[in-house]
Amino acid sequence: MKQKAVMWIELGLIVVLSGALLAQCISFKKIRPVVREPAAPGESTLSYSPPPPPKLQWDTVKQLARLRDLVTPKVEKITEDIYLARGFALGSVQMVITDEGLVIIDTTETQEAASKILKRFRKITDKPIRYIIYTHGHLDHVHGSPVFREKGTEVIATKDAVEFMKRDFELLKEFHARNRLNQAGRAAPEYSRKLPIESPVRGFRELGGFVWPTITFDQEYSFELGGKKFELYHTMGETPDHLMVWLPDERVLFSGDLYYQSFPNLSTPMLEPRPVREWYESVDRMVAMQPKYIVPAHTAALIGEDKVREILTNYSKAIRYVYEETVRCINQGKTVDEAVHSVRLPAELAELDYLQELYGRVDWSVRGIYAGLAGWYDGRGTDLSPLPPNIPAREVVLLAGGADKILSRAIELQGADEHQLVCELCDIVIDANPEDKLAHIIKASSLEYLGYTGGNLNMFGFYRSAAALERKAAGIKP
What we know:
Elements: H1 2-25, H2 58-71, E1 74-77, E2 82-86, E3 93-98, E4 101-105, H3 111-121, E5 129-133, H4 139-142, H5 145-148, E6 154-158, H6 159-171, H7 173-183, E7 215-217, E8 220-225, E9 228-234, E10 243-247, E11 252-256, H8 276-288, E12 293-296, E13 302-303, H9 305-331, H10 336-340, H11 347-350, H12 362-373, H13 390-400, H14 403-415, H15 419-432, H16 437-453, H17 457-474
Parallel strand pairs: 4-5, 5-6, 6-7, 11-12
Antiparallel strand pairs: 1-2, 2-3, 3-4, 8-9, 9-10, 10-11, 12-13
Helix pairs in contact: 6-7, 8-9, 9-12, 13-15, 14-15, 14-16, 15-16, 16-17
């Protein structure tokens, strides 16, 4: 009995001591995040004269010949039976003539452009259109399809294309309509300056009205028409649903968007991540097929086995290099911004004419690869549960001595052509007070300069839209 009493006393002491220790470690006070929203700063009062509209840079002028080629309608004869219609809009259309009818590959983005193309095709042949093939479900490949569809026309795509188009044109219809207009530089056209040259990016106003596929396949599909054999292969890259069309007897490969004359658009800033590793693997498959002709959905065809092999080999090397270097940065623990500033194409690839950053960009590609392989949190703590941007922005404006102080520096930097920094300073003021008209106007001017000096078609469109939206926010037209 005595031993039991001692045991109970010892157990009681343990409980008391444990409770005392727990009391030091545990707080029963309800913890809530402390969020103090500072008052919005007053609107800036500086006088400001916007700089003159930006002029085209000499490097941009040198690219205008290529841009004019993109916007000049033409139907090019590739072989006796194959024609490429390009320059009518962003997306091209390819026609294969057989003894029993036509095969149309891709249909461009507008019915207006498609009608012009069909009219030109009908000067070449009056044969019926038996098949339409979608290389993938992007709008610049499918939206002209009603023009080409005739009674009995079959429409072929991968099974994945159906789900891809349902997502883009039904589930995310408003999102894609808005973002495609932004990419085209047409987010707020009434607040934009007139372009010095017509943009090849046209017809992104509406989503819908295309013809759904009637034949779908998983990995491979083939058919014969009029003595010609068509082999279709699922080749991921530009999109997960992508395919290529191979005519083995003619050694003609219709590559869709797996190749065009620019560093490829491995990541579009306002769209989902793309399968980059699968992209270069698909290009490697193309090289192994030893094509004599590559007919892309954008830009001119490649003709000649040696030329095709050299260009596609380097194209694959460039994509692989950016992918593998970005993966290396991820494994080293670098942030996406650190990786963006360290990944560059090797000089022997960067200097090639067909790998210039005219449509895609290496830095955007790095960001897209990060988005596809890594999460959104950078490990530094701050971004795990951030405050609304207006709260820290208002503190910064207060510390700076008001919006006038920040915008005065922005105007000074604008005169020194430091336009990216100008935009970031203006964003602080705009986050703190979205009603500050001057911040919007200063930023709009710098955005225009960034667009004219970027040397990239998509970048120009995005900056043009952004500048127009800033003017719209201020209620001031150019």
